[in-house]
Amino acid sequence: MRGAALLLLALAGCSGQEMADQPSLKRDEANAIWGTASATRPLPEGVVLRGTKARLAAVATPPPVTAELMALGQRRFAEICAPCHGLAGDGDGIVVERGFSPPPSYHSARLRAADAKHFVDVIGNGYGAMYSYGDRVPPEERWAITAYIRALQLSRQATLADAPEAAERIR
Q1: Which residues form the signal peptide (predicted)?
Q2: Rg (CA), the chain
Q3: CA 115 to chain centre
Q4: Where are the domains of the chain?
């Protein structure tokens, strides 16, 4: 009887998903606490930013889409992203075959509608179970991978009528 009561007490503490469901703001979302248009806290006067201005600018500005950029993106995607996301971006990489949770498919409506900066940010800072590749992938390569992800997405959605504007849609 005492064991059943202890078991019941222990199970009562296992209810809910409070730790799993943590509401948060996106980086560029308005924040009522700080009174700014950014979810991040305003930097104090005189703070020195991490990284160089050129590196920070490289994250903010996408490079022009070229054949070289796409080739770099394809190579880096195969090295860094494909183990989890799969070569076609379906979320069926080798780690999923080994029992890890599958990442989202790049072909889902949510990720097709996502801004290109979302992918650059996720590569640099991580998201959910994905850890940050910020120290492993420089900003220029993040944009190359993002361009390749957009090409993968277009490969399943594009028609012949879309071909002339495909280069613009990759951005």
Answers
A1: 1-20
A2: 21
A3: 10
A4: 50-161
Confidence of residue 89 (pLDDT cuts 50, 70, 90): very high
Q: How far is CA 39 from CA 30, 43, 44, 53, 135, in A?
A: 6, 12, 15, 21, 23
Alpha carbons 158 and 166: distance in angstroms, whole number: 8
Q: Please determine, for residue 156, whether its predicted confidence score (pLDDT) is greater than 80.
A: yes
Please check whether the domain covering 50-161 is classified as CATH 1.10.760.10: yes
Closest CA to 122 of 84, 158, 94: 84
Nearest to 146 by CA among 70, 39, 47, 56: 70
Please state whether the predicted TM-score (pTM) of the whole model is above 0.90.
no
Query: What is the C-alpha to C-alpha distance for residues 5 and 144, in angstroms, rounded to an integer?
Result: 58
Per the document, the length of the chain is 171
For 57, counting Cβ atoms within 10 Å of its Cβ (0-12 exposed, 13-18 middle, 19+ buried), the class is: exposed
